[in-house]
Amino acid sequence: MEGRIMGQITLDEAPLNSFHKRVVAFTTGGMFCDGYILGMIGYAMVLLGPQMNLTPFWYGMIGSSALIGIFIGSLLCGWLTDRIGRKLAFTIDLILMLVLSISQFFVTDPTQLFIVRLLLGIAIGAEYAIGAALMAEFLPKKQRGSLLACLNAVWTLGFVVSVIAGYFMLKMGGDTIWRWMLASSSIPAFIVLILRWGAPESPRWLINKGRREEAENIVKKYIGSNVVIDDLVIEENVKTSYLELFSKKYMKRTIFCSVFWFCQITPFFAIITFAPQILKTFNLSDDGLTGTLILNLFQLAGVIFGVWIMDKVSRRYFMIVSFAILIPSLFILGIIPNPSAFILILCFAVFLFVVTAAGNLEYVYPSELFPTHIRSTGVGFASAMSRTGAAVGTLLLPMGIERYGIGVTLLIGAGVLVIGLITSILLAPETRGLSLNEASLVLDQTANNKI
């Protein structure tokens, strides 16, 4: 505060304005596209599979192509974004998403579809790494947590909308309807691209690259004439290196962000992907849309609750308590051989509600814990590690059910959640109410690890 003229405030202290809301709209809009793209492929495969005479190998390859791409995109594009800037990466990413969405309409064989979906996955992975970093760098600290949580909430909304749209498009029938299903993601992508066009570069990134005058001009134009960036001097001219994530200074936060995200995603993706099979195993029928919609409604309720509560309670408390609730929700189903429909629905409802509410922390914690020069790199790496969990979960769950039964398989899922709980107790810091600079330094200091 020393040397600041009366009436001046910092980026973290600035009131939320219309520009902040635009940033939230075009960033969460990208996540809507991501959820929509990933959700639509399930219904499209019902029609394109027989038309293309897909073998089990190609069903698996096309189904996993976007996940493979997300891993690559998250791992590489986060680092690239820290090198070339948020603005350029953000624009290129949406253009690619738009072009590739349309390209799906014209594929003629499984190989072409696999390649297009792989590239789409890379674009989605880039979006994960770029969006959270950009939002965190613009938003004031008072609303940062709840608005970053909207990334996960809007991703879920995009997924649910794709499920509903896909179901009704499937009912329409026709040989080419699957092409329209896949290409329909170009509509939200185009809208988000228009919103994103002309957006400025992150002033924190500009400061990091020594471009102070540009950063000051952007802050005064978009945030306020009384907003100063003197508090960002600590970030100036710091070089980006991927290996820094594994240095003594940042290793603890890299481990924490990667492990908790992995442990949330692994059982979640497995259960939501194979929910009909799980329900059938428990002799609970599912008519397709109804069961899927019910599960998705619990997810939507969870993410809305997570956004609402994000800045009202301790981040650390939220993380630890969520794992503590998730573990028994799977453990109970694992130890009861033939649970009643009430117990089954209750446990799944609790699991989906809590895991999606706590899933909002997946974009909050990494964005706060890594400093500007490696923020996208750190978010991208943690996201990539989480996608290995998604891939492992979706790959092993059906094999586990067949070989060991549903009970043992769900107990393994509960075991993964136990690892997440232990990691959170040992490493989860508290970042609520801190400036972005303070949050990125919190693990360098002696943390108060009380719940």
UniProtKB/TrEMBL annotation:
Coiled-coil portions: none
Gene Ontology annotations for the cellular component aspect, listed alphabetically: plasma membrane
Keywords recorded for this protein, A-Z: Membrane, Transmembrane, Transmembrane helix, Transport
Domain Major facilitator superfamily (MFS) profile, first and last residues per copy: 23-432
UniProt xrefs under Gene3D superfamilies: MFS general substrate transporter like domains
A GO MF label: transmembrane transporter activity
SUPFAM superfamilies for this protein: MFS general substrate transporter
Membrane disposition: Multi-pass membrane protein
Main location: membrane
Localization: Cell membrane
Spans traversing the lipid bilayer: 23-45, 57-81, 88-107, 113-135, 147-170, 176-199, 255-279, 291-310, 317-336, 342-365, 377-398, 404-428
Protein name in UniProt: Major facilitator superfamily (MFS) profile domain-containing protein
Gene source species: Neobacillus mesonae
